[in-house]
Design a protein that fits this description.
Number of strands: 5
Helix content: 40-55%
Distance between the termini: 11 Å
Number of helices: 8
Shape: globular
Strand content: 5-15%
Strand order of the largest sheet: 3-2-1-4-5
Structural class: alpha/beta
């Protein structure tokens, strides 16, 4: 399982899976780590899903919403990942990758086609929805 000292950075796809399965409030029972939702992911998911559910979820003791850091290294890497010359990834996913990389935290994402290569190259630990359910 995940090192208990590491935080779990939740991407939109994992949150959507757990919302659709009506298991979003079970996540803290599944994994004891502190969970973070970046503001860019929050903005992305509340445009598509029930804001009420996400707002209740982030009020749980182990879940927090945080702002994407304004540090130059974060901003530059984020700009690269969202650019055409980079990976052309969406905002939430890019923010999660950058945050997990520079904080040595664990990414929760099931979008393997977009994250796997970057995570392998930068030695970012990641976990998918299936891993969480198992």
């Amino acid at each position: 399982m995940i090192d208990p000292n590491k935080k779990l950075i939740l991407d939109a796809d994992v949150l959507i899976h757990f919302i659709k399965g009506d298991l979003i409030f079970s996540l803290p029972k599944i994994i004891p780590n502190e969970m973070l939702i970046l503001d860019k992911v929050y903005d992305e998911i509340t445009q598509r899903r029930s804001k009420e559910i996400i707002d209740r979820f982030i009020n749980l003791p182990m879940v927090s919403i945080i702002d994407f850091p304004e540090d130059l290294k974060y901003i530059e890497e984020y700009a690269f990942l969202t650019s055409e010359r980079g990976h052309n990834l969406d905002k939430g996913e890019s923010a999660c990758l950058v945050y997990a990389r520079f904080n040595d935290d664990v990414l929760a994402s099931s979008n393997l086609s977009d994250i796997k290569r970057y995570c392998s190259f930068h030695k970012i630990e990641y976990i998918t929805t299936i891993d969480l359910l198992i």
